[in-house]
Write a structure and sequence with these properties.
This protein folds into two domains: 151 residues, 2-Layer Sandwich (Alpha-Beta Plaits), CATH 3.30.70; 131 residues, 2-Layer Sandwich (Alpha-Beta Plaits), CATH 3.30.70.1900. 23% of the residues lie in helices and 29% in strands. It contains six helices and 15 strands. The strands form five sheets. It has a five-stranded antiparallel beta sheet with strand order 3-5-1-6-7. A hairpin with a 2-residue loop joins strand 6 and strand 7. Helix 4 packs antiparallel against helix 5. The model has no long low-confidence stretch (mean pLDDT 91).
């Protein structure tokens, strides 16, 4: 269906001590993953990546702080999406007892797939160093990959290497696209307009499709060297205006503490279902792909995750 390679991995850790988690753990896991990846990647010990002579070859910025291009044929970018998505435990999971398993998923896209061994080492170091304010420690026990709607183990603690495996592929689109589909969001969806989150009543199929196609296009161009993955984005966005919708979304308020800004940051978003109906054949493959890539602001910490279901 697509030449954009991606894969969803599940990491299972056994906790040696009780772990307290915030209401939504995506921000915590993303921050500690980034810090661990930087520790195992950085060869200079510099406090910042800006100005580092190794920035263009270092795996840390390539995965976690993807630099925007200095020039671009179409527009100027202040930032581009990073080629990973952390999918934390379900909303409301606030405690993992000692001896129990902490599981979360990590989606990798494009060239980031080649950094899996380094990422595994970073996650091992992360859990050995300890998570959260209590620095609860644990051990990486198993890594699985999702393929064909099932999970297959590619590494266990007794293994010396990660088993060979292929990137995940979307299922082929149906011969006849459904006339209606339902997107069920289980983490807050934060689509933005002029820097402000769009509330459920103001959401439209055009906004959904435009933001999703932009995300897919940028990931394909900057992380898979495939700038023309989607042939005619403007035509697809215009087509989205012909779709009917039924919104059953509610606003879910939550916040996270930003160590950088030293304050609580509000991160509310829409949760629930969004039904689209009409001519869906041209959009179906990209809506399908969005289940792995997520959509909207803060997708790297797992926001904007949805399942595509029959309406």
């Amino acid at each position: 269906m697509t030449s954009l390679p991606f894969a969803r991995y599940r990491f299972t850790f056994q906790m040696a001590a009780p772990l307290r988690l915030p209401h939504y753990a995506g921000s915590l896991l993303r921050g500690q993953f980034g810090a661990a990846l930087r520790r195992v990647s950085c060869m200079t010990g510099a406090t910042r990546c800006d100005g580092c002579l190794l920035r263009t070859t270092c795996p840390y910025p390539a995965v976690f702080e993807a630099p925007a291009p200095a020039t671009h044929a179409l527009q100027r970018f202040s930032q581009i999406p990073n080629p990973y998505v952390i999918e934390p435990p379900a909303l409301g999971t606030t405690r993992i007892e000692a001896g129990d398993a902490l599981c979360f998923n990590l989606v990798l896209v494009g060239r980031a797939l080649g950094q899996l061994p380094l990422i595994v080492v970073a996650l091992q170091r992360m859990i050995e160093r300890g998570l959260g304010n209590d620095r609860a420690r644990g051990t990486l026990e198993r890594i699985d990959i999702e393929q064909n709607a099932d999970w297959h183990t590619i590494w266990q603690r007794s293994d010396s290497t990660i088993a060979s495996h292929s990137p995940t592929r979307c299922e082929p689109p149906p011969a006849v696209a459904p006339s209606a589909i339902r997107l069920v969001f289980d983490t807050p969806l934060r689509l933005q307009h002029q820097g402000q989150p769009v509330r459920p009543a103001a959401l439209t199929p055009r906004k959904l499709v435009a933001d999703l196609l932009r995300r897919i296009t940028l990931l394909a161009e900057f992380h898979a060297d495939h700038p023309n993955l989607i042939a005619d984005v403007p035509a697809l966005v215009r087509h989205a205006e012909t779709l009917d919708q039924q919104l059953e979304l509610r606003w879910h308020d939550w916040s996270r503490y930003s160590s950088r800004q030293r304050q609580e940051m509000p991160l509310g978003g829409a949760i629930g279902s969004w039904t689209l109906s009409g001519e869906l054949e041209s959009l179906f493959p990209w809506l399908q792909l969005g289940q792995w890539l997520h959509i909207g602001k803060n997708a790297t910490m797992g926001l904007g995750r949805y399942q595509l279901l029959p309406a």
